[in-house]
UniProtKB/TrEMBL annotation, chain A:
GO terms for cellular component: plasma membrane. This is Branched-chain amino acid ABC transporter permease. It holds the Pfam family BPD_transp_2. The chain crosses the membrane at residues 14-32, 44-62, 68-85, 92-116, 122-141, 179-199, 229-250, 262-295, 315-339. One of its GO terms (molecular function) is branched-chain amino acid transmembrane transporter activity. Keywords: Cell membrane, Membrane, Transmembrane, Transmembrane helix. It is a multi-pass membrane protein. The keyword Mitochondrion does not apply. Its main location: membrane. InterPro entries: ABC_transp_permease, LivM-like.
UniProtKB/TrEMBL annotation, chain B:
It is found in: Cell membrane. The keyword Membrane applies. This is Branched-chain amino acid ABC transporter permease. GO terms for cellular component: plasma membrane. The keyword Transmembrane applies. Keywords: Amino-acid transport, Cell membrane, Membrane, Transmembrane, Transmembrane helix, Transport. It is a multi-pass membrane protein. The chain crosses the membrane at residues 6-27, 34-54, 60-82, 94-115, 135-160, 189-211, 217-235, 240-258, 264-284. One of its GO terms (molecular function) is transmembrane transporter activity. It comes from Actinophytocola xinjiangensis. GO terms for biological process: amino acid transport.
Automatic annotation (TrEMBL), chain C:
One of its GO terms (biological process) is L-amino acid transport. CDD domains: ABC_TM1139_LivF_branched. It comes from Actinophytocola xinjiangensis. Signal peptide: none annotated. Keywords: Amino-acid transport, ATP-binding, Nucleotide-binding, Transport. Residues 2-234 form the ABC transporter domain. It holds the Pfam family ABC_tran. Belongs to the ABC transporter superfamily. InterPro entries: AAA+_ATPase, ABC_transporter-like_ATP-bd, ABC_transporter-like_CS, BCAA_Transport_ATP-bd_LivF, P-loop_NTPase. This is ABC transporter ATP-binding protein.
Length: 360, 292, 234
């Protein structure tokens, strides 16, 4: 029986995702055209956080691997983009972003091969080390990579055809921050369509199988190592693309932009939205982008200095992360479902003090 | 030659601190199968407490003692209020929980104490001892570092090997159900384990801070080094953690002295990956290689 | 005397034990028999407080044990040796034994250790070694010796014969019989190996799918051919 959603959005997953993407594009155009420069820049940031979070949520939620090192892959993407945009004849923007994703893909493959053999806390520790290690590299190679100061990034000229096209549709001239927001959201839409299809495909089912029943998956002929490496690579590639966009928006690639905190905040963003859900990743990205301003405002009203008030946002992310893990491990949406199921199952069943498996 | 000796002595001193931190991680891992990544900001915030007291004019030793005691309390609180409520056996949830705590404590410290760099005093000299004409790299504070870590380790050995309480704590860590059946109050033992681990973590926080700068992220690198040291030792074994800490301290000091201090975390990553891929059970495991 | 009344317990929605009642008299061995999945292990786990019953009661003398937590049972004189994996292999043999003694308020120094070693000479030779090196039979001896260190009045034993050579099983059962005769210990013995269990038991309780089938003297159970075929497999 076709539901209303089926009828509106199309029945096959691909058509559904494409329809959603088109709808998304319309929303993006409307929102970006009706907001000012400051908001445009925020939306650009939401786009790159969203892409990185989308990749990470696929890795953690679908494949069950954890990475605290996605800030490092973002750094790799950002530096790649910065280097390619440096010369007198900078590369075309699509090429730059592809390269940012590509270099991160290569790095992700390297790390992923090692990571595929690790699990849980070991994987967490290794990727944590990655997050701490990578910002040191540009400092060491200060000549080429700008040291502590980092590399400044020149925003490429807005292509005439793009400015014309947007003018034709909206009747407005294009500012560079609006242009970057467009670029970011186009990338996000393309990435999310690809990720959504991947998740629904055989590859996605393989990942879930590896996450849920390692032994059964292996018996079913799934190459565990390959499935894990692939998930890691896909996720690192997203982070690289996000890093490239970040460098463009921030107009700089510097070590201080890729601290451990960035990786941890990405993680908490996807936990808040619910692991494994792209919508959740987008919600998390929105929180990362818009919550700080809001909360910092409250903090200033309470008499905190700017610098201290800026710490309220991470405090809230952290607290909510802890609460979600403790009380709704499936994310906020999943938690509501589970609570309902628990209530239903509770009627008339004897309770056990331990949660060990049933032993006769 | 002079530089090599300097490097080795610095490495051993740092290695003792990493060893202490690794030991804290191992104590908690053994008992609760959780790698407490929040150990770093926990140690950071207790060090800040000491700094506030010292800046208020109290002696270094008052600050030192308060930091250790508050570490003990913080560890117990974290176990009772947070970790105890973690249900299920999902490894990822345990990791995310400690990282959530990491973010919370980090933000709290920045909120309360500010994020600027503040210098932390050292109770002993930071200049190398004179031997004849040459200055060797061992400082008064370095000696204090080594001695205090050794004293703490000695006390832990006494506790675990020599007392009934230590025996109960070990039993509770290895098999909760059997321990309960033998009358051990497992919950209390786990709280105590977290408290002791946090105390040891606080000690390493104080030792890293001594004579240097303190800011909310100053322990972030140390949690990585401590974790790697613990993994080198197999993550299960306290003596392994100590050996791992010393080896890592030496190795990183060599990298720092001869290549560049910026690459120390990278070297640490390389060492970690090499060990995990070649000897997943740690450098000192004779038993079956555990799946990592 | 251990009295179990209408005991019902389960894991989540699964009921593993359904209204079981029996008594185990002082100075006797009560064998709990039945096929895999009959609820034998759950019965012991519920008695010792590892599983909370949803209905029914457990009494030891005048103490009501029904809601007592597992960690307080040892102090009340109840020792539970769980199936197969009771040894803490990371500790030495002697540390395992010392662990058993910790609940006692009156400390007797090394005397009780000596008694345990006299009872199980094999353990004495390995007192300083990790319990990891012990054989299956030695492990079973160690957990029994450790349980006895607490000087219990009731001993719950879960499948002590599991995976052991027949010669060792005979040794352990002989020892149980003498403990009961000498010290007036109350033993509840869960066994798959019904024939051997009934040979030393005074009474037997047969469970099937969580319910009590019959409770009678060991001799009567061993003599009931129909029952033996249906539930005891010999």
């Amino acid at each position: 029986m076709a539901t209303l959603a089926d009828r509106v959005l199309g029945r096959t997953p691909l058509r559904r995702h494409l329809t959603l993407a088109l709808l998304g594009l319309v929303v993006v155009v409307v929102v970006l055209e009706s907001t000012g420069q400051f908001r445009n820049a925020q939306f650009a940031a939401m786009a790159y956080y969203g892409i990185a979070a989308g990749g990470l949520t696929i890795l953690i939620g679908l494949n069950g691997q954890i990475s605290l090192g996605h800030g490092a892959f973002m750094a790799i993407g950002a530096y790649t983009a910065a280097l390619l945009l440096r010369g007198d004849e900078p590369f075309a923007l699509p090429l730059v972003l592809l390269a940012a994703a590509g270099v991160a893909l290569a790095a992700g493959a390297l790390v992923g091969v090692a990571a595929a053999r690790l699990h849980g806390p070991y994987l967490a520790g290794a990727t944590l080390a990655l997050a701490v290690a990578v910002p040191g590299i540009p400092v060491y190679f200060g000549e080429a990579l700008g040291g502590e100061q980092g590399l400044t990034v020149r925003v490429p000229r807005i292509p005439d055809w793009f400015a014309d096209a947007v003018f034709f549709v909206t009747g407005q001239d294009m500012s560079s921050s609006r242009y970057l927001a467009y670029v970011g959201w186009l990338c996000l839409i393309v990435t999310f369509v690809l990720l959504a299809n991947l998740a629904r495909s055989r590859v996605g089912r393989t990942w879930r199988a590896v996450r849920d029943h390692e032994v059964a998956a292996e018996l079913a002929g799934i190459d565990l190592g390959r499935a894990r490496v692939l998930a890691f690579v896909v996720s690192a590639t997203c982070a690289g693309l996000a890093g490239g966009l970040l460098a463009l928006s921030a107009r700089i690639a510097a070590p201080s932009g890729f601290t451990l905190t960035l990786s941890l905040l990405l993680l908490s963003a996807i936990v808040l939205g619910g692991l494994g859900s792209l919508t959740g990743a987008l919600i998390g990205a929105a929180l990362l982008t818009f919550l700080p301003q809001l909360v910092t405002g409250w903090g200033q009203d309470l008499g905190l200095s700017d610098v201290r008030a800026a710490e309220l946002a991470p405090l809230i992310y952290g607290l909510v992360t802890v609460l979600v893990v403790l009380f709704a491990p499936a994310g906020i949406a999943g938690g509501v479902l589970a609570a309902r199921r628990r209530r239903a199952a509770h009627h008339g069943s004897p309770s056990a003090r331990t949660d060990s498996e049933a032993r006769p | 030659m002079q530089q090599l000796i300097t490097t080795v002595l610095t490495g051993l001193t740092l290695g003792m601190v990493y060893a202490a931190f690794a030991l804290a991680l191992v104590l908690i891992w053994r008992a609760t199968r959780i790698v407490n990544f929040a150990q770093a900001p926990m140690a950071m915030i207790t060090t800040y407490l000491a700094l506030v007291l010292i800046d208020a004019g109290l002696s270094y030793w008052v600050g030192f003692a308060v930091a250790l005691v508050s570490g003990l309390l913080l560890g117990a609180l974290v176990e009772r209020l947070v970790v105890r409520h973690l249900t299920g056996s999902s490894e990822i949830n345990a990791v995310i929980l400690t990282l959530g705590l990491f973010i919370v404590i980090h933000a709290l410290a920045a909120l309360v104490f500010g994020s600027r760099y503040r210098s932390f005093p050292a109770p002993f000299g930071l200049r190398g001892f004179q031997v004849g004409d040459t200055t060797i790299a061992l400082t008064g504070f370095g000696v204090f570092t080594i001695v205090s870590v050794m004293v703490v380790m000695g006390l832990l050995v006494l506790l675990f090997r020599g007392t009934d309480l230590g025996l109960k704590m070990r039993a509770a860590a290895f098999d909760q159900e059997i321990s309960r059946l033998l009358g051990v109050r497992v919950g209390r033992m786990l709280t105590l384990g977290w408290a002791l681990a946090a105390l040891v973590g606080s000690l390493s926080g104080l030792l890293i801070a001594g004579g240097g700068l303190v800011h909310p992220s100053y322990m972030d690198g140390v949690v990585v080094y401590g974790f790697v040291a613990a993994v080198l030792g197999g993550l299960e074994s306290p003596p392994g953690a100590v050996a791992g800490g010393l080896i890592l301290g030496l190795a990183l000091s060599l990298v720092s002295g001869y290549v560049g201090s910026e690459l120390v975390p990278l070297a640490c990553l390389v060492i970690l990956m090499a060990v995990l891929l070649v000897r997943p059970g740690g450098l000192f495991s004779h038993v079956r290689a555990r799946r990592v | 005397m251990l009295a179990v009344e209408d005991l019902t317990a389960g894991y989540g929605p699964v009921t593993a034990l359904d209204g079981v009642s029996f008594t185990a008299a002082r100075g006797q061995i009560t064998a709990v028999l039945g096929a895999n999945g009959a609820g034998k292990t759950t019965l012991l786990r519920t008695i010792s407080g590892l599983v909370r019953p949803s209905r029914g009661s457990v009494r030891l003398g005048e103490h009501d044990l029904t809601t007592v937590a597992a960690e307080r049972m040892a102090r009340l004189g109840l020792a539970h040796v769980p199936e197969g994996r009771g040894v803490i292999t990371e500790l030495t043999v002697e540390e395992n034994l010392r662990l058993g003694r910790l609940v006692r308020l009156r400390r007797v120094g090394a005397g009780d250790l000596d008694r345990a070693y006299a009872l199980f000479p094999a353990l004495a030779q390995r007192r300083r070694q990790s319990a990891h090196v012990l054989s299956g039979g030695e492990r079973q001896m160690l957990v029994i010796a450790r349980a006895l260190m607490a000087e219990p009045t009731v001993l719950l034993l879960d499948e002590p014969s599991l995976g052991l050579a027949p010669r060792i099983v005979v040794q352990i059962f002989d020892l149980l019989a003498s403990l009961v005769a000498d010290d007036g210990l109350t033993v509840v013995l869960v066994e798959q190996n019904a024939r051997s269990a009934l040979s030393i038991a005074d009474r037997g309780v047969v469970l099937n799918l969580g319910r009590l089938v019959v409770s009678d003297t060991a001799a009567a159970l061993a003599g009931d051919e129909q029952l033996r075929h249906a539930y005891l497999g010999f």
